[in-house]
Amino acid sequence: MPSTHNHPAGSSSPLASIGRSIWTRRDQFHSVEANPESSAREFELQSFQKHVTDLFHDLSAVGADEFLSIAWIQKLLDVYVSCLEEFRGIFLKNKEQVSKSPMDHWTDEYLDRSLKALDICNAARDGIEKIRMWHKHLEIVLCALDSRQRAYCEAQFRRARKALMDLALEMLDGRDSGSAFSHRNWSFGRHNARKDQNHRRRHTSSGHSRSHSWSISASWSASKQLQSIANNLVAPRGNENAATNGLAGSVFTMSSVLMFVLSALVAAIPCQDRGLNTHISIPPQFSWGIPLMSLHERIMEESKKRERQSSNGLLKEIYQVERCTRHMTDLVDLVQFPLTEEQKTELEQELQELASICEKFKNGLDPLERQIREVFHRMKNCRTEGLELLSRASSLE
């Protein structure tokens, strides 16, 4: 399924370079087939591990100016989609093994995590809707203080002050886990809900918890959902990996990628009860663990900064909104008429920054939401394929 989002003009899509790397590995694969000592499966699994390592290395190489920005989150989702598609290809080539013991246990746990992940996608999409509402208030401020056709007057500042107060109230409400957003039914794919429920009836396990992907209650918690996904996320032992011909290791890799991507989304975007206390630990034998843990530590360090501890989200643009609106509110409250040249200069500087933030929201929020929607559908489709494999295997027993 092709990606539906757009990238800024003048930059190349991360998926384009990802696609090139996949073709390169396919060329390498043909050369391995000629070597009788090499296993095609082993090479493919090693190639998957290297692919994940390379992608997360690139993600971790970004500087502070880009880290946790809308553009960086878009790259993170591109990376997830690329990893998922390669992982899916491995599973489809090993259909019989993934549905038989002992591999079926690993498959089942991954499918359970991917089901819970759908709620996080919905929560992130809802968070984007909140940011859109903040964006509207920022545009009112910009419109109110537009001085291109007239000199500043008190009426303009009263309108700007009201918009800033409304924005402050909404951002404060966004930190409340019981906000009105949590009472809304969420779904990227309601029309397929019954089909997915039928699959769950055919194949369930004691480890599966009820999904709230189509109706999330006011008590739902992003933090608890992440913790539920992280539970029992442990690397396979050597004998377990050997018994599954290395497939269990690939499941652990994809589960860890899923866990990190979800935790980064919850950290960056306003979500209901978005605690950041989920523990992530990667054994040293996985090369991708180094860049992934480096990114996780950077997110934790960002969350501990004094100015970010009460933030609605660690998204770079949210911090810019919070900082700029504080300055703008102080300026609007203290201004006296007529404005001095110094006050005009300061006001125009703040308005320029506000305009820059609005431009980022205008250009970035819609593509980001489309990406999250695409991730949701890819997760759900991959899960449906996995459930069908397990169901078919159970019917043959």
Description:
It contains 13 helices and no strands. It has one domain (14-396). The chain has helices at residues 14-33, 40-60, 70-93, 95-98, 103-144, 154-174, 193-202, 222-230, 238-243, 247-268, 289-304, 316-334, 341-396. Helix 2 (40-60) runs antiparallel to helix 3 and helix 5 (103-144) packs parallel to helix 10. The longest helix has 56 residues, at 341-396. The protein is mainly α and 397 residues long.
For this entry, give a set of tags:
397 residues; mainly alpha; 13 helices; disordered N terminus
Question: Would you spell out the secondary-structure blueprint of this structure?
Answer:
Layout: H1 14-33, H2 40-60, H3 70-93, H4 95-98, H5 103-144, H6 154-174, H7 193-202, H8 222-230, H9 238-243, H10 247-268, H11 289-304, H12 316-334, H13 341-396
Helix pairs in contact: 1-2, 1-3, 2-3, 2-10, 2-11, 3-10, 3-13, 5-6, 5-8, 5-10, 5-13, 6-12, 7-13, 8-10, 10-11, 12-13
Determine the strand fraction and express it as a percent band.
Answer: under 5%
Largest sheet: none
Helix/strand/pairing class, anyone?
A: mainly alpha
Give me the strand/helix succession: HHHHHHHHHHHHH
Whole-number tally of structural domains: 1
Overall spatial form:
elongated
| Cα-based radius of gyration, to the nearest Å | 24 Å
- Give me the count of strands: 0
Question: What would the average pLDDT be, to the nearest integer?
Answer: 82
Estimate the helix proportion, in percent.
55-70%
Low-confidence stretches: 1-38, 176-215
Distance between the termini: 33 Å
Q: List the total number of helices.
A: 13
Family: Belongs to the ROH1 family.
Keywords: Membrane, Transmembrane, Transmembrane helix
Subcellular location: Membrane
Membrane topology: Single-pass membrane protein
